[in-house]
Each structure stands twice: as C-alpha cells, then as structure tokens.
Amino acid sequence: MAQTPSIAEEKTSSAVSSSKSITLRIARFNPQKDSDTSFMEFKVPVEKWTTVLEAILDVKKHFDHSVAVRYSCRQATCGSCGMVINGKPRLACFTKISELNSDTVTVEPMHNFPIIRDLAVRFDRLFNSHHKVKPYLIRDDTDVSSDTKEILQSPEELEQFIQFSNCIKCGLCNSACPTMATDSSFVGPQALAQAYRYVADSRDKGKDNRLKIIDESHGIWRCHFAGSCSQVCPKGVDPAMGIQLLRGYMLGFRS
Fold this sequence. Notes:
alpha+beta; Ubiquitin-like (UB roll); Fumarate Reductase Iron-sulfur Protein, Chain B, domain 2; 2 domains; two-stranded antiparallel sheet; 10 helices; 7 strands
C-alpha cells in the first residue's frame, strides 16, 4: 500500500524541483607559480536565496577544496568577502545569485589589490592608508573636565558624518576607483571618506592635522570624481560626496 508523503517530504520535494543550476566561473591564480589567471567552471545548484558566497563554498565542499576565498560573518558586516562579481565589485555574502539575472556567474579577485591566491587579496595598502588619516577622535585632554562622562552632540552635528561611520573597510570602493589603478601611492576613497568622517565630527580637534596629511600630490587632489566608489558601497556610504565635502574644508568653504 502506497504511503502518503509527509508535509516535510513534500516541502523537500518542492524545494528540489524548484532549484536550478548555474555555471560558476572562478578565477584561479597563484602568484607563486602561475603566470596568468585561468578560470574553472562548476555547475552549482542554487535557490532564489542562494548567495554567491554560498555557491563558492558549495564548490569548495563538493568539487575543489583548494579554492581560496576570504569570508567570515556572512551577513555584510565584516567586509571580508569582497570580490568582482560579473564585472562589479560586490560582497559575495550580500549578493544573491537570483539578483544577477544570469545563468553564468563569474567571480574574480578585487582590482587594485595584490592577489594572495584565487579570490583572496592583500589589504595592506588599504589599512595603511586608513591608519595614515588618523581614524580616531583627537582631543586635548584639557578640553574635558574630570567629571565629564560623554561629549554630547546635536542631531544636526551627528548628521554631518554619521553615514561615513558605516564603513566596514571591505575595499570595494578602492577596487572600483580608476585612480587607484593608475597611482600606486593614491590614498584612496576609503581613507579620504574616513578623513572626512572625523574632520566633520564636532567632537574632534584634529582637523588641521588631517588636512595637512591629505593635502599632497597623492592625496585628495588625485581624485578625479568618477563616482564609481559610491556606486559599489554595500553600506550606503557615499565616499565621492565625502571627498567633495572634504575639499570644501581644504579650500576654506567649510570650517
């Protein structure tokens, strides 16, 4: 006598039947032994909720565990899984394959970063530039009395810089920047946007120092305002606007 399938079995069957497969093209390159980048293709089953990172990890689990990829939080918070997906810098954990509207998904390492292997790149330049602009509040201890617990700001003061506090240092803006590709010493949109974040903070007293740091040939004046940095930020930060506002301080239009 035939058994009636359980609800769980029906859901499983429905999920299997609704799935599809895409071709995942992964860039492979080991600078220690390869002279050029090659691509390996894998057929990967996906659902409407499958992210690019999940597809890559499926390849690592079932086809080739040697694929190198950096990831951590899987929720667009740590900024670890930045890569070029179908030609655009994106976070792999934040990009659903169904949103790409393509049966072929090509993943490559971010541009303008040295490749460690495959999809993993070095962040030395980004972190060094970030550190260079002094990304912290600078204050004279005499400004704060011993009984002060916090420095209050008005909503209007907070609005001046709050969006730039959302930066997760994923490097996507630097990857999209055309100036980063032509000037190996350019400080980059990420660092410049963070310089603005602290210059615009009413609690900070390091404005003059920071402006001197970025006022050089590989600093703020190398930005050509392509705007590509703002187009790829996964957290809604607008580095291009921050750089333009920062120029206002440089030129004396803002104080």
